[in-house]
Amino acid sequence: DNKLSIFVGNLDFQEKEETLWKYFNDKLIEKKDKKDTKNVIENVRIVRDSKTSFGKGFAIIQFIDTNYVTKALLLNGKKMGKRTLRITRSKKIMRNNDDMRKKFSKLNDQQKTVVGRAKQLGKGDRKTLGKLVVEGERAVKGKTVLGRNGVVKQRHGARKERRAADARVTKRSQAFKEKLAAEASSKNKKK
Questions:
Q1: What percent of the chain has pLDDT over 70?
Q2: CA–CA distance, 46 with 105 (Å, rounded to integer)
Q3: Nearest to 142 by CA among 158, 153, 130, 128
Q4: What is the pTM of this model?
Q5: How far apart are CA 121 and CA 129, in angstroms?
Q6: Same domain for 52 and 77?
Q7: φ, ψ (nearest 5 deg) of residue 86
Q8: What is the CA radius of gyration of the chain?
């Protein structure tokens, strides 16, 4: 939560979470309150290089209350060891949609549909995206399926073409239905 967090910059690369925890607890808790309050910090995260596990020189500290955030901001420019700390409020990062628009503008309608569907699916369903799915309405014979590499394929067992209105079978079925209707109406008249 950016209202409860601060950004601490200009840290030593070998700094540890415990030293930051201790430094801010000592500075922010008033001497008369030290007996009652054990901790004002909820979380400390030093951003580290994944390969060397050395710190990158900055950390995010989350407090239990917004009052401690304002007190911590007053420590901006103060020294911790040999280094002068740079402390600011954590900012909520607003993602730039222009990059996404550029990516999607190159896609055709079929690919945009697939991408839109992928956003709605969970991680497990994303693996099956674009593969043959046999369930519910999507498995109706004759519908097209999105195959590998965005190729649209006709499903096996495609639906046959509809019969012509003047076909022999159609004429026979219509005659039979008319005969049944005539018999039903004659029975109703006799009653």
A1: 66
A2: 38
A3: 158
A4: 0.49
A5: 9
A6: yes
A7: -115, 110
A8: 35
